[in-house]
Design a protein that fits this description.
The chain has 6 helices and 12 strands. The chain is α+β, with helices and mostly antiparallel strands. A 7-stranded mixed β-sheet has the order 1-2-10-5-12-4-3. The chain has a 3-stranded antiparallel β-sheet with strand order 9-6-11, with no helix packed on it. A two-stranded antiparallel ribbon has the order 7-8.
Length: 238
């Protein structure tokens, strides 16, 4: 696999390129930067890995043992080596990374005013300082959105009014708790002229999360739409 070289979106100062895993892990967020990218060109046949999983479940989780047992050729084995190495890198940090082959994510059955599935632009959240790591190896890559081109759904008057009707009460502390409980406050709408950017294939990212005291705003992102006939996504996330 030879993806095109990664370059931060033109004029987008929130993404910083780093040149090693150590730099990815140790570079602090600050000065507005809320996403770090370690660009990589990975050798190996990642499509062969996906092909061995058949056409069954929508989401298949792969561990080291299952990866090593896949009947793939030398190029596929090279891809497996990369996947296991990335899993081990993140585990060494005390993280619990998950590698999934994704044909489709669940959709909101009745999204109402705000869709809260992963196809919606959103920010990850936590109660303690942490980050999200992710890498797409096959299929469509994750998409990011500039913070100045994103607006929280709950700050759009029409959407907030509809959420208030669903809540059935005044705009007070209990309503704010209702928004947090349903994660409505973590989802965003893109500005009319917004230009989302792709995370690319093979690149390992570390993005900022919404937690109390974070020095930067969270990185707004989403999963790409699953199109008919499209190769499933092979996604590492932690």
């Amino acid at each position: 696999m030879t993806p095109p070289p990664f370059h931060p979106p033109s004029g987008y100062s929130r993404v910083r390129v780093v040149h090693s895993f150590d730099e990815l892990v140790t570079t602090p967020f600050g000065g507005g930067v809320n996403a770090l990218c370690w660009p990589r060109t990975l050798d190996g046949d990642f499509r062969a890995v996906v092909a061995q999983l058949g056409a069954g479940e929508d989401i298949v989780t792969l561990d080291d043992a299952r990866l090593q047992a896949l009947p793939v050729g030398p190029a596929g084995r090279a891809a497996v080596a990369w996947l296991i190495a990335d899993l081990q890198r993140l585990r060494a940090l005390g993280l619990a990374p998950v590698l999934d082959c994704i044909r489709r994510y669940p959709r909101d059955e009745a999204p109402g005013a705000v869709s809260t599935d992963v196809y919606s632009f959103h920010a990850d959240s936590a109660t303690v300082p942490t980050d999200t790591y992710l890498c797409t190896y096959t299929g469509a890559a994750s998409e990011g959105l500039r913070n100045d081109e994103a607006r929280r759904c709950v700050d759009v008057p029409e959407i907030r009014a509809e959420l208030l009707r669903s809540f059935g009460g005044p705009d007070n502390g209990e309503f704010l708790e209702f928004l947090r409980e349903h994660c409505y406050d973590l989802h965003y709408v893109a500005a009319p002229q917004a230009q989302p950017f792709g995370f690319g294939l093979g690149h390992l990212w570390r993005i900022a999360v919404d937690y109390p005291g974070s020095p930067v705003p969270p990185c707004v992102h989403r999963a790409p739409e699953n199109l008919p006939g499209q190769l499933p996504r092979l996604l590492l996330i932690s």
